Amino acid sequence: MAGIVVVFDFDETIIECDSDDLVVQELGDTQLFNELLPTLPFHILMDRMMGEIHSQGKTIKDIAECLKRAPLHPRIIAAIKSAHALGCDLRIISDANTFFIETVLKHYGLMDYFSEINTNPCLIDEEGKLRILPYHDSTSTPHGCSLCPSNMCKGLVIERIQASASVEGKKRIIYLGDGRGDFCPSLKLWEGDYMMPRKNFPVWELICGNPMLMKAEVHEWSDGEELERVLLHLINMISIEENSNSNYTQLVSLDCKFETIPTSTHENSVLRPPQLLTVGKELNALAK
Ligand SMILES: [Mg+2]
Ligand SMILES: [Zn+2]
């Protein structure tokens, strides 16, 4: 079953905290952070904080050690492994950065479960300082989305995933997130996709306030146990639906063989996908 792409946000979705807050609180100057917060775009502020942390004599290794203390619910680890074992293509879209995300995933042995991590890139400069760069270069190519910060429009990333996934024959997306930045991509999901907002978090509130804007079906979750239960239920439902569609294809092909169509024109018995999809849905509705 390779028809499902599961897209995770990272902070407060995969991990049970915000990795930027964790590093700033444990290693940085929270007072300076709070002073600069209203004045700087967030990714520039985080880059600045990495500079501050470096100037206090703290190393990349100190940052990594801090990140390894990011809590990750055991049921979320299990959910990631189960979804992967069921053949889903797992990806991350996050406004954190490659260093933070990869450090945490490697620590928990989860790096190989994800086919793609879309986030702000990092580099370590000649002084050994961690630099955080914007995902989109807003100076040369502004993304033009009014919902998203200049450095990253997650909706644009979802559109790229939708385009490449449909070429690969992957039809459905399940998106999990908690933050304001997860609202834009949730609006881009299609009918037949699923949005899993974390209950009582900003994206859940935005969705509750604008239910008519959503084409995807919405399934909330609160904690690791519920995330696992809802996610595996949705994957299971999609796979039952896809199996009944493919059984129907086989039935139609057999019927046609036994009826009047000679084997030389056998390819005529294959229905075009849009018709199949409609019939499959009706069959599912009848079966319920
Ligand atoms: Mg988040
Ligand atoms: Zn956007």
From TrEMBL:
<dbReference type="InterPro" id="IPR036412">
    <property type="entry name" value="HAD-like_sf"/>
</dbReference>
<keyword id="KW-0460">Magnesium</keyword>
<keyword id="KW-0479">Metal-binding</keyword>
<keyword id="KW-0378">Hydrolase</keyword>
<dbReference type="Pfam" id="PF06888">
    <property type="entry name" value="Put_Phosphatase"/>
</dbReference>
<dbReference type="InterPro" id="IPR023214">
    <property type="entry name" value="HAD_sf"/>
</dbReference>
<dbReference type="InterPro" id="IPR016965">
    <property type="entry name" value="Pase_PHOSPHO-typ"/>
</dbReference>
<feature type="binding site">
    <location>
        <position position="9"/>
    </location>
    <ligand>
        <name>Mg(2+)</name>
    </ligand>
</feature>
<feature type="binding site">
    <location>
        <position position="20"/>
    </location>
    <ligand>
        <name>substrate</name>
    </ligand>
</feature>
<dbReference type="GO" id="GO:0046872">
    <property type="term" value="F:metal ion binding"/>
</dbReference>
<feature type="active site" description="Nucleophile">
    <location>
        <position position="9"/>
    </location>
</feature>
<dbReference type="InterPro" id="IPR006384">
    <property type="entry name" value="HAD_hydro_PyrdxlP_Pase-like"/>
</dbReference>
<dbReference type="GO" id="GO:0016791">
    <property type="term" value="F:phosphatase activity"/>
</dbReference>
<protein>
    <submittedName>
        <fullName>Uncharacterized protein</fullName>
    </submittedName>
</protein>
<feature type="binding site">
    <location>
        <position position="11"/>
    </location>
    <ligand>
        <name>Mg(2+)</name>
    </ligand>
</feature>
<feature type="active site" description="Proton donor">
    <location>
        <position position="11"/>
    </location>
</feature>
<feature type="binding site">
    <location>
        <position position="178"/>
    </location>
    <ligand>
        <name>Mg(2+)</name>
    </ligand>
</feature>
<feature type="binding site">
    <location>
        <position position="95"/>
    </location>
    <ligand>
        <name>substrate</name>
    </ligand>
</feature>
